[in-house]
Design goal:
heterodimer, A: about 140 residues, alpha+beta, about 30% helix, B: about 150 residues, 6-stranded mixed β-sheet, 3 helices, 6 strands
Amino acid sequence: VTALRRLADELAVRDVVSGYARAVDRQDLAAVARCFTPECAYEGALATGTIADALARLEAAFARYARTMHFMATQDVRVHGDAAEAETCCVAFHVRRDGGLSTVGVRYLDGLVRMPDGWRIARRVVRSEWTRADPAP
Amino acid sequence: VGAGQVTEDAVARLVTDRAAIRDLVARYAIAVDRKDWAAVRACFTADATCDYVWFRGDVATVVGHIERGLARFERTMHLVGTHLAEVSGDAAAAETYALCHHRLRTADGAVDRVVGLRYLDALVRTPDGWRIRRRDVAVDFERADPVAAP
């Protein structure tokens, strides 16, 4: 594998994680689902089980907030052939319907696989590291 | 030139285009923080149009509004986060999240005004590199926190 192709793979993996952020923030459930393999193992606040369990609860989570912004920052990506690992720190802003702001520092620990149509998350652990709550301005 | 060579070239082009687009968006953020308005204008094509929610228009108009709008702040820091771009030949579409910190000095002390927004950009490849031809801003939240010290 050339260095160039590894760079392209790393970019594609970053795009999957960023694409998840955009899909969630757009409240586009189908686009969220496309970031994962159908049988993706999932462990986080939404569910412990598979991505299907998390997706089933995501729509209710959408309804709780006026808007969200998943600001992806620090990211470490390691590609090994057709598998990859990505660790991503995210500041997730949740605009509440009363105008208040709930902010969560999230760490995503992802295992990805190369599928015929691109990289997908096959295993995800979501850790909430810190939170803060601000009243409506 | 075999098929493999062509593919390798295509990969190289994609990776370099994506890096250039990411750099352009970062360069804009740093230029705004430096109040280097010539550098801000240089991120756009001459015929670019923008909608910044608070104001809209051509590049001269919009950069003028940004300059006047930021004049009252001691400092700003535009943090760039989530970034996605799709390149199609000599055109591209990019979405970039930004956390914009604005430090304001008031009679009651300092205030940190934070705006969470997304830049939605249509870009074009020019002889001088990638430039923004159309920018729309979507504001996700705003917050103002009093700053205890310094």
